[in-house]
């Protein structure tokens, strides 16, 4: 019998993604605007808008502006060789950081980027001069939205919560679900419907083996 899928936690809030996590795999494929800082031989054919007329080696010219998946941009980025530079997505630029500092709760994070926090943390890998401001904005945005998320999760018992989670990013949705589970477990306990403690499968199997040995 097949086992149920065991969710692997995301590592995106740390220095590296967890490539056993489906959330991180999806996040690593989100596009990031970059600019090439050196010609890239034989890549012009993959980007015809830049590669046409670039010479016999089909080089991608210096200064080409592209959108690459996060995993590829991280692989090509090098502090010493300057292969490419990264442009900040609009949601992490100063204009939006001002909006977040004014009232983070008004922003539809899922529409702007379903993995806002994880993707933002991975941007710190590229040594932008705005990294300190980005990290501070991510932290303050989370703090500003956290209380409302948990309040909503604790005051929506047996209700349709689709409207409440529609504007949340994926990490915030996980927090909301955790709050909902805590609320449901408490309601079951209060009604006397909490599940009884049972012996683990390991203990039960050990008892069966011991009984069999006794019979022999």
TrEMBL record:
Chief place where the protein resides: nucleus
Binding partners and assembly: Component of the GINS complex which is a heterotetramer of GINS1, GINS2, GINS3 and GINS4. Forms a stable subcomplex with GINS2. GINS complex interacts with DNA primase in vitro. Component of the CMG helicase complex, a hexameric ring of related MCM2-7 subunits stabilized by CDC45 and the tetrameric GINS complex.
Residue span(s) of domain GINS subunit: 97-189
Key word Nucleus present: yes
Ranges of residues in domain DNA replication complex GINS protein PSF3 N-terminal: 21-77
Family: Belongs to the GINS3/PSF3 family.
Keywords of the record: Chromosome, DNA replication, Nucleus
GO cellular component: GINS complex
Protein name per the record: DNA replication complex GINS protein PSF3
Record keyword NADP present: no
GO BP terms in the entry: mitotic DNA replication initiation
Compartments where located: Chromosome; Nucleus
Reported function: Required for correct functioning of the GINS complex, a complex that plays an essential role in the initiation of DNA replication, and progression of DNA replication forks. GINS complex is a core component of CDC45-MCM-GINS (CMG) helicase, the molecular machine that unwinds template DNA during replication, and around which the replisome is built. The GINS complex plays an essential role in the initiation of DNA replication.
